[in-house]
Amino acid sequence: MAGDGPPVVRTQLINLTLAADAGAVAELVAHRLLEALRSRGNLGLATGRTMLPVYSALVRLLRQLPPQERQTLLADWCSFNLDEYVGLGAEDSRSFAAFMQVQLGAPLQLPGGALRIPDGRARDPQMEALRYRADLESAGGLGLQLLGLGSNGHVGFNEPPCGPEMPCRALTLSRATREQNADAFGGNPDDVPDQAITLGTAEILAADSLLLVVTGAAKAEILRRTLQEPPCDAVPASWLQRHPRLEVVADREAAAALS
Ligand code: GLP
Questions:
Q1: What three-state secondary structure class fits 15?
Q2: For the chain, how are helix, strand and coil distributed in percent, rounded to 5?
Q3: CB atoms within 10 A of CB 207
Q4: Where in the sequence numbering do the catalytic residues fall?
Q5: What is the pLDDT of residue 12?
Q6: Cα(185) to centroid of ligand 1, in Å?
Q7: Rounded Cα–Cα distance for residues 51 and 54 (Å)
Q8: How far apart are alpha carbons 28 and 57 in whole angstroms?
Q9: Is the pTM of this model over 0.85?
Q10: pLDDT tens-digit profile of 212-254?
Q11: What is the 123 CA–ligand 1 centroid distance (Å)?
Q12: d(CA 16, CA 28)
């Protein structure tokens, strides 16, 4: 009989911007980041292959600005990265700190301390997570948070299962994530650190606005689950649906499974 069974749960309408390919996505996202820099909020930044063309496009955009505006924006830069591997410091080329330095710090000649990130070499990772969270709070929290999407639905390094109120913390990475990120470690998942420090879903959802960037056919199904199934702990990124200012930018391949 009609009306029997569980109620249909509709996800709220998502602000989705489609672009032809990863290059076009990067241009769009770089413009959003420039707007965020101009509005002077703290930027939340992410790592991963998805962000490589984004950061190249941002560097190009900033270099095209009149010198005075560029200098002001760079001098005032304050960003907080999502996560870092436990055990890796900035001197290790596989760390996220090194990734950020190569992609943004060096090309933009950012002042020391501008790109904040958890210290993977801290003696006590849980204490470092608390320190990082306090640092973010005293800086006034996040303005725009840039996000990639893990193949298993993680956001930052919030591995499934994960609810919407998990704080910044040290945690154990899943096998799936270590496999996904093995490329940067010579292809061997066993060489990927098994612990990381990540901002939690709590800090991410407290940002003023969220910008989720997803490219490539391999992410199509997890993007569909993220946006078009009811939020659940099995897909941590699905909690992003709860944010009133979530924008998703995807290329055609990543968006292929969306209805
Ligand atoms: C890592 C990061 C995530 C990122 C994900 C996606 O696991 N911790 O923040 O979203 O990678 O990576 P990629 O862009 O390489 O697919």
A1: strand
A2: 40, 15, 45
A3: 24
A4: 83, 152, 154, 159
A5: 53
A6: 14
A7: 5
A8: 9
A9: yes
A10: 999 999 999 999 999 999 999 999 999 999 999 999 999 999 9
A11: 25
A12: 12
